[in-house]
Amino acid sequence: MSTVNECLNGLLKTDGALSAALVDSNSGMMLGGVGQGIDLELAAAGNTEVVRSKLKTMKSLNLNDAIEDILITLGRQYHVIRPVQAKTGIFIYLVLDRAKSNLAMARRACQDAEHSLAF
């Protein structure tokens, strides 16, 4: 089991990783963050709205399912949002340099980080 900082620092070892955060989607507050190149506090609050919106849409559509991850593809970056299944309302946020990263490996790293977290 890993602490929040160990988990996030582990994510930064992913090829192309720029920054990572653990976010409480109930409040929009960042529980921990590492890296550079982006205002993680602002990103945490903004991506909380992304998660809330998707959950609301799923409820409206009567989809009885869970979000595995949300991928936002930008011109130069990937942003991966992965809800922590064991802790409702918490998600991992990983920002990657698109030219230097492997999306499949990054998604796998988020999955591994999720399973290693100790709350």
Pairing-aware structural class of the strands and helices?
alpha+beta
Largest sheet, strands/sense/barrel: 5 strands, antiparallel
> Uncertain spans, ≥5 residues at pLDDT below 50?
none
Oligomeric state of shown chains? single chain
N-to-C span: 9 Å
Number of helices: 3
Strands side by side in the biggest sheet: 2-1-5-4-3
Number of strands: 5
Question: How does this model look, in words?
Answer:
The chain has 119 residues and is of the alpha+beta class. It contains three helices and five strands; from the N terminus they run H-E-E-H-E-E-E-H. It has a five-stranded antiparallel beta sheet with strand order 2-1-5-4-3, sandwiched between helices. Strand 1 and strand 2 form a beta hairpin. Helix 1 packs antiparallel against helix 3. The longest helix is centred in the middle third of the chain and has 21 residues. The mean pLDDT is 95.
